[in-house]
Design goal:
homodimer, 402 residues, three-stranded antiparallel sheet, globular
Chain lengths: 402, 402
Amino acid sequence: MFSFELLAKEGEARAGKLYTAHGLIETPSFVAVGTQATVKAASVDDLLEIGIQVIIANAYHLHLLPGEDLIERMGGLHRFMGWHGPLMTDSGGFQIFSLGVAKEHGVGKIGSIFPEERDRGGHFSSKRGKPLVRIDDDGVEFISHLDGSVHRFTPERVIEIEQKLGADMILVLDECTSPLHDYNYTRTAMERTHRWAIRALEEFKSTSDNAQALFGIVQGGEYRDLREESARFISSQGFDGYAIGGSLGRSKEDMYRVLEWTIPLLPQDKPRHLLGIGQADDILEVVERGVDLFDCVAPTRMARTGTLLTREGERSRIHIVNARFKDDPRPIDEECDCYTCRNYSRAYLRHLFMARELLAISLATIHNLYFVESLMRQIRCAIKEGRFKELREERNIASENS
Amino acid sequence: MFSFELLAKEGEARAGKLYTAHGLIETPSFVAVGTQATVKAASVDDLLEIGIQVIIANAYHLHLLPGEDLIERMGGLHRFMGWHGPLMTDSGGFQIFSLGVAKEHGVGKIGSIFPEERDRGGHFSSKRGKPLVRIDDDGVEFISHLDGSVHRFTPERVIEIEQKLGADMILVLDECTSPLHDYNYTRTAMERTHRWAIRALEEFKSTSDNAQALFGIVQGGEYRDLREESARFISSQGFDGYAIGGSLGRSKEDMYRVLEWTIPLLPQDKPRHLLGIGQADDILEVVERGVDLFDCVAPTRMARTGTLLTREGERSRIHIVNARFKDDPRPIDEECDCYTCRNYSRAYLRHLFMARELLAISLATIHNLYFVESLMRQIRCAIKEGRFKELREERNIASENS
């Protein structure tokens, strides 16, 4: 049911085909984030027109609202959300990290939409506060961010939740660490993640109907020996795919190094997923290092604040509410073929944002997602034709010249 | 360029064809409200798929944001908002009424989404306060609701604004009265509206390029002799179409009476537009009395709060956040063919509203607009086949049985 076919390689960059119970994914692929069983502000028809191949929803969020039992009764997540293509669910490990140690340490992860925060090394200060989580070897107890109710996740329980949701690719429960954790704690958490991975896999094997694929998660923070140890250990367990999670250091350079340590140790014949990373300017970098799948909220989150991806502009983006777009008749990006760019001017989009019209957010979301998908199509084509390096240089020059 | 063809009549109900510079409108027709150059939460493609024939934008709102000059520079309103079908603009008379006397009197108009307010006779208390408007015979001075800047509208100035916007059908500036105004003030305001109508028509004739059609507005509040006098006067001026505006009394029955006094006095060979009215349960009533066009925010506004139109249910609507829809696998309306009903369950829509996802609003908007359009298609067909009365009775029985 689930298999990965490698079509071409250029350096570490790979082009392939991932077959799932709900269809094919051409890799490398962006995975659109649909945390609460919807990609924010986009309909399924929008996503199909954009060319989105796969969506990742979130077991933590869907467990709290509306609950996995309800979704199962409604025929599973595909049917519930009207998306009949490939679907993943994240385990909630990162969300529990956000409620727990991230709150304690006042840190977040690369992917902030605010440039000044990204420049500080990829971590932003979130409001510090009392952690809402208690982790022990058996699992994790946490307090719902919605209503304060107490919940318990174990590796087995998360598999059960994800089986009820019924996505094509599911992730094991892991423990994410913060860049402020020291070596010793990071090792302790990694070893716990490994024990949880074994338990999750056992639970999965004893209950799976073979329609779902289970991905293991490599942890180990920003420490080379831990990342290597984790990559070797998780690889040896025979998962269907491999994800890279947790703290990837304090800068984009740290993140690239973590990928360079980890990916060569993962099996060549399985897909690799980078969790929660993929700013427009990261994409070429992570694909170059061998990533097949990555999910990131940046395109949709930026859209909601009027930050639109372009081929030119500072950091390849424009802030549409800027007064200079007031009577700009051009589309967001003159080479873009998306619905928004085919039909609307920057002046109109700016008006919609200024007038606080919801259509602003839909149109911006469509553009940003299309922009990323369009880059992914170019990347896949370039790898297959052996000119990925060329594409990478072209794009870098374009962005430096702007 | 602009003409109206009467195809069939059953009692006062009429089916016809309205030819505009941007295409045909089959009447009777719902006019979708696109105040700020967008129908809230719907894209142009959504509207085309739904079957929306015509949109009404607002000269007052667009004058303030982004300004008629900017829209003119961007190629006019059609091009600016990407809608290439028939388009109207309202003059802003009602918005000025809202800033002025409606504030003073603490009244609004039929069309509130809150049933308890509608039951009180179609008027709701809005926050009373100091009026932001000063009306004199020359025109009206008002303070922007956005930034407190001072503006002046005269009948001539409004024509100029609407010519820059470039809609196919435009409305003259009128003075709306409140149901709390006495007979004498209502007469004074009506006579001023008549003088303004003459000035607007003169301005229009001396500047028109013949692509636009100008509609006069009948006023006169809830007083029979004033409504009749106004209908006769405005009809005698030779406008391209006739709108019915202002206070239509304190209940739906008052409104129906106003239509019965007014419409028989309007020319048969011109379209009649009822301004700002058209709850789902009003539609058959107003069409029966000879209305060809009507605009109403109710379908889109109700959508944003999760109130969805159905063939059954109390008052032909359901409140989707109600707990009883939690695991209801049915579409909103089992006979509806809209995108939302073809793809999503009540359970999913409820989840989206509970999770505060923007997609909730888009999907609800699509459904409510489609529901109204679908009723309009049935009505047009029934009038042409001489069975409008039958349709009216069927729908009444369905709604009483539910």
